[in-house]
Write a structure and sequence with these properties.
Blueprint: H1 4-12, H2 16-26, H3 37-50, H4 53-65, H5 69-78, H6 88-97, H7 104-120, H8 125-128, H9 137-145, H10 158-174, H11 180-194, H12 198-208, H13 214-220
Length: 224
């Protein structure tokens, strides 16, 4: 699948003024069309309805390879689904994108898709763990953004609690990283966790919070 028709549908909605603003804002060197996220979502809904899972994977791959900002967001949204019977190809494609992440917006849409695949198969965390030492900052960050679903569980099972502890260990490893986006991601993880398990978030901050930049420490403790 080339995705030519789908890319043409995206291009038909292009807004050059918005595109210029997006390019300046996101800074990653790629083509921008200037579509809003709801515009992308409306197109993706039609594409998803017309395709089976292998077709969605093939289209997502083609859209991603175009390197167009909105097409990459569409690729991620095409694969954002809670229940997929056989999701091996879906996970493989999403995980294959991670080493090439270079901007937060696309990375976060991909994380929403990838996080669902981790929840479906938590053993995939073994594949995620090496990301925390990857040379690409965005890949390191993805270890936290992909695992955000575990921060939001109101009634976690023992296995979920073990995963929270595991990811907090990754946060400990990443805390000395001075990159703003890494610091923000750690704060995001802890802030969301604090809404459901304030004691665990407070304990981590008590032991490791000094390693964070002040803004991240403050953000992490926002609801404590």
């Amino acid at each position: 699948m080339t995705g030519a028709a789908e890319l043409a549908a995206l291009a038909a909605l292009a807004d050059p003024v918005r595109a210029a603003g997006s390019a300046a804002y996101h800074k990653a060197p790629r083509p921008y069309l200037g579509l809003t996220v709801p515009q992308v979502e409306a197109l993706v809904a039609d594409w998803r309805a017309a395709l089976d899972v292998p077709g969605r994977v093939a289209l997502a791959d083609a859209l991603w390879r175009s390197n167009i900002h909105e097409a990459r967001i569409a690729a991620a949204k095409l694969l954002t689904q809670a229940r997929i019977v056989d999701d091996k190809a879906v996970w493989a494609l999403i995980a294959g994108w991670v080493p090439g992440f270079d901007a937060w917006a696309i990375a976060d849409h991909a994380a929403a898709a990838g996080g669902r695949r981790l929840v479906a198969r938590p053993e995939r965390l073994d594949e995620v763990e090496p990301w925390i030492t990857h040379p690409n900052m965005w890949t390191r960050r993805a270890a936290l953004t992909f695992t955000l679903p575990w921060t939001r569980l109101t009634h976690p099972k023992p296995a979920d609690e073990a995963i929270r502890t595991r990811v907090l260990g990754w946060a400990t490893t990443l805390a000395p990283d001075r990159d703003w986006f890494i610091q923000k991601a750690i704060a995001w993880w802890l802030r969301d966790l604090s809404k459901h398990d304030p004691a665990l978030a407070r304990a981590w901050l008590g032991e490791h919070g000094a390693a964070l930049k002040p803004f991240a420490r403050k953000e992490a403790a926002k609801y404590l």
